[in-house]
Amino acid sequence: MLIAQISDVHLKPEDVLAYGVADTATALARAVKHINTLNPRPDLVLATGDLVDEGASESYVLLRRLLSPLKPPLFIVPGNHDHKASLRNAFHEHHYLYDTIEEEGERFICFTVETYAVRLIGLDTVTPGEHGGGLGRGRLVWLDRNLTERPDAPTVVFMHHPPFASGIGHMDKELFTGQREFARIIKKHPQVERILCGHVHRSVFRRFAGTIASICPGIGMQLDLDLRVEAPSAFIMEPPAIMLHLWTDLWNEPTLLTHISVIEEHPGQYGVPHPFFGVISPK
Ligand SMILES: [Fe+2]
Ligand SMILES: [Fe+2]
């Protein structure tokens, strides 16, 4: 089973550069083409939030159009830049977007996908009106109950906000609400293979509560790799990338392997494997 992960498109209208620099519509179209031409093709795509830059309904119409050529099925969790009602309107056939948990009058999109070799749990970590996020009591109780139901199913939890500091100063000022309780729950359930996140627009990995937590690069732009505590908020136009998570039993060891696949149209030899020895036969 091969899972592709994309994150943080921050889609703007086709004729608008995000923050005066980033052509996000072209970047998304390239990402879709990149996923469709992978061999083997991923079984599904997870999108870990911030799909648009401003949650206007027109942005989601464009988002749907640009994602429509995507061949694998898509599962979305919202980010702090998303507007949930507009997201649902544009992707109305994505029934899981209507699976919600209520906390203090707010509804949060939380769902499980049980139809693959790896069980998927999507969590909505968006705190309304805030840039940072977290998980409240209702979602945490729901998560614990769901993980208790299938202790033998290898599981991926995916969500927008990482439950840990990234080392990028301006992003770390906002703590993850409910972090300790979330870590306590994850630790209780060793079937959790990975916690897949977005929000930080860089590839980051760390040990978290007995599993591996990771952050996916952005499609729209990358955050500047500035590890000073006082790092100002800035982005950089490094090549965007997706993550590929492969559930495999190579060497008879069932495990989830993660690769990073860079999307960039280099002139000339883009995407052509060069043999170290001999000749490569076409795929
Ligand atoms: Fe983002
Ligand atoms: Fe975000």
Please, could you describe this protein's structure?
- This protein has 283 residues and is of the alpha/beta class.
- 20% of the residues lie in helices and 25% in strands.
- The protein has six helices and 15 strands.
- The strands form four sheets. The chain has a six-stranded mixed β-sheet with strand order 6-7-8-9-11-10.
- Helix 1 (24-36) runs parallel beside helix 2 and helix 2 (57-67) packs across helix 3.
- The longest helix is centred in the N-terminal third of the chain and has 13 residues, at 24-36.
- The protein binds fe (ii) ion (2 copies).
- Residues 8, 10, 50, 79, 199, 201 line the site of one fe (ii) ion.
Overall SS class: alpha/beta
Q: Stretches where pLDDT falls below 50 for ≥5 residues? A: none
The neighbouring-strand order within the major sheet is: 6-7-8-9-11-10
Query: Average pLDDT value?
Result: 95
Q: Can you list the ligands bound to this structure? A: fe (ii) ion
Rg, rounded, reads 18 Å
Helicity range: 10-25%
Strand segment tally = 15
The SSE order reads EHEHEHEEEEHEHHEEEEEEE
Name the overall outline: globular
Determine the number of helices (DSSP H or I, runs of at least 4 residues).
6
Biggest sheet overview: 6 strands, mixed
Distance between the termini: 19 Å
- The fraction of residues in strands falls at 25-35%
